[in-house]
Amino acid sequence: MSWWEQWLSEVWQTARELIRISRIDRPEASLLAPEQSFFVRENLKLRLLNVRLALLARHFDVARHDLTQASNDLQTYFDTDNRQGQNALALAKEVLSKTKQTELPRLDDSLAVLSTAAAGR
Q: Would you kindly state where each structural domain of the chain is located, as residue ranges?
């Protein structure tokens, strides 16, 4: 081998040691900068607070939508292979399954029941 072929071979060997190519199944989470991961966590917290406020205000469609988005964010950006991630995802799905539209009693029905009860005295 000539000197330039040896030099090229050494450069190639050094480059192979420095560069590692691997497959990433979920590139979104691994490509986040530390500042972005902070905002992803804060966004998840805000979504969960919106779910709480929507449930308190009896806006079940909004709560279901925000909870679906929160569980999608959990699956996309967080590690759901460990126990804590699985617990958080299971709790989100449980709350989502239990948020049902309940019909509030109407004022007319309440007044009718009160007048019937008052007539029975």
A: 30-101
